[in-house]
């Protein structure tokens, strides 16, 4: 099967987003699980990032859409890792958040920011356990490698990161190297249409991951069908 065209993916993206919005919310008893609450937020964010990326593309900002695609890719992988790890994964997310908050407070104190002592005390009392899951959530590559030892997931992330940081890749997009001296462009060169395919894959994987937490997996068959129609991978592998 040939790779799906950007047009096919755009149709699928809109269908998947529409199906997601129509989907029934998680039952009340499942909302008592921390992993469900975190996963819901991430899944909702991924769908909004997908829609925003399409809006940028439609308005001539394909280059800039890659920043959103990179965020969606990272969040999709983390979402799958979280659903596989369950409660321990949720504890890891909260522990890493506590570590970062404490580090921020330390920086604010050193920089002499005026912050209420009650706020500083509350942050410093946040629980932080150096668990395996907390360490994995701190380092995104560890999450990627636990799912895909072949490094393909992390390689895509590194490629997309080239537009999200001050890099030679970001600078090169605005140069014409075939003139002497090189031409300076006000608008970026048209890159490969990777956004649509990558967004579609993120939506399928994110949807399947979150759906695995919901009783009966109500969106499973729809997402499997979309993946088959486009020749895309239906679900990420289990975490090792």
End-to-end C-alpha gap: 29 Å
Oligomer: single chain
Share of residues in strands: under 5%
Overall residue-averaged pLDDT value: 92
Query: What structural category characterises the helix and strand content?
Result: mainly alpha
The proportion of residues forming helix, as a percent range, comes to: 55-70%
**What string gives the helices and strands in order?**
HHHHHHHHHEEHH
| Number of helical segments with 4 or more residues | 11
Question: Could you give the order of strands across the largest sheet?
Answer: 1-2
Instruction: State the low-pLDDT regions, or none.
Output: none
Total strands: the figure is: 2
**Alpha carbon gyration radius:** 20 Å
Q: How would you describe the shape?
A: globular
Largest sheet: 2 strands, antiparallel
Describe this structure in words.
The protein has 240 residues and is an all-alpha fold. Helices cover 65% and strands 2% of the residues. It is built from eleven helices and two strands, in the order H-H-H-H-H-H-H-H-H-E-E-H-H. It has helices spanning 6-22, 34-58, 62-85, 87-110, 117-124, 132-138, 140-147, 152-161, 168-172, 194-211, 220-230; strands at residues 175-176, 183-184. It has a two-stranded antiparallel ribbon with strand order 1-2. A hairpin with a 6-residue loop joins strand 1 and strand 2. Helix 3 (62-85) packs across helix 4 (87-110). The longest helix is centred in the first third of the chain and has 25 residues, at 34-58. It is globular. The relative contact order is 0.18. The model has no long low-confidence stretch (mean pLDDT 92).
């Amino acid at each position: 099967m040939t790779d799906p065209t950007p047009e096919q993916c755009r149709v699928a993206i809109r269908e998947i987003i529409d199906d997601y919005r129509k989907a029934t919310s998680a039952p009340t008893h499942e909302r008592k699980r921390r992993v469900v609450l975190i996963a819901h937020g991430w899944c909702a964010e991924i769908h909004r990032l997908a829609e925003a990326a399409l809006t940028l593309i439609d308005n001539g900002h394909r280059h800039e859409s890659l920043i959103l695609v990179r965020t969606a890719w990272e969040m999709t992988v983390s979402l799958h890792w979280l659903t596989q790890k369950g409660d321990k994964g949720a504890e890891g997310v909260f522990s890493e958040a506590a570590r970062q908050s404490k580090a921020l407070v330390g920086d604010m104190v050193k920089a002499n920011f005026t912050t209420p002592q009650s706020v500083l005390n509350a942050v410093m009392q946040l629980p932080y356990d150096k668990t395996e899951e907390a360490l994995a959530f701190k380092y995104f590559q560890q999450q990627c490698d636990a799912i895909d030892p072949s490094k393909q997931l992390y390689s895509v992330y590194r490629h997309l990161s080239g537009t999200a940081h001050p890099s030679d890749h970001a600078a090169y997009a605005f140069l014409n190297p075939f003139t002497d001296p090189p031409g300076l462009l006000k608008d970026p060169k048209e890159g490969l249409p990777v956004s649509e395919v990558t967004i579609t894959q993120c939506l399928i994987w994110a949807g399947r991951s979150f759906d695995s937490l919901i009783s009966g997996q109500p969106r499973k068959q729809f997402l499997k069908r979309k993946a088959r129609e486009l020749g895309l991978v239906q679900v990420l592998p289990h975490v090792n």
